[in-house]
Amino acid sequence: MSFVDDDGSLVEGVIDLIWKDDEGWHLLDYKAGWQHPHRGDNLTHEKLRRHFAQTAMYARGLSKLLAGERAVDFGVWYVACGLVVRWGVADAGVG
């Protein structure tokens, strides 16, 4: 996906999964590198902040592409441990 963000910068990225249900559109990005804290690496606040910023940009871009259809939420799936973190699109600055 490529789009111009609100600040005028060109954003290019690959959305791992988008789907639509009765509520609207959802976006999920996969992260395979993080492991559960009891098995190794810790999910730090900084990593979570970076992942939020990345997926929030995707959510803004998807919202622009949907042109009026309802985008509901976006999130990150930490595959190695099964953790899913989700945010509402309002958190990304989407109307």
What order do the helices and strands follow? EEEEHEE
| Structural class by sheet pairing and helices | alpha+beta
- If you average the pLDDT, what whole number results? 81
Tally of helical runs:
1
Taking the sheet with the most strands, its summary is: 4 strands, mixed
Key terms:
23% helix; 1 helix; alpha+beta; 95 residues; single chain; two-stranded antiparallel ribbon; four-stranded mixed beta sheet
Explain this structure to me?
A hairpin with a 5-residue loop joins β1 (2-4) and β2 (10-12). The mean pLDDT is 81. The two termini are 20 Å apart. This protein is of the alpha+beta class. The protein contains one helix and six strands; from the N terminus they run ββββαββ. The protein has one domain (2-92). The strands form two sheets. Strands 3-4-5-6 form a four-stranded mixed sheet, covered by helices on one side. A two-stranded antiparallel ribbon has the order 1-2. The chain has one helix at 45-66; strands spanning 2-4, 10-12, 17-20, 25-31, 71-78, 83-88.
Write a concise synopsis of the structure shown.
23% of the residues lie in helices and 33% in strands. With 95 residues, the chain is an alpha+beta fold. The protein has one domain (2-92).
Describe the protein's topology:
Blueprint: E1 2-4, E2 10-12, E3 17-20, E4 25-31, H1 45-66, E5 71-78, E6 83-88
Parallel strand pairs: 4-5
Antiparallel strand pairs: 1-2, 3-4, 5-6
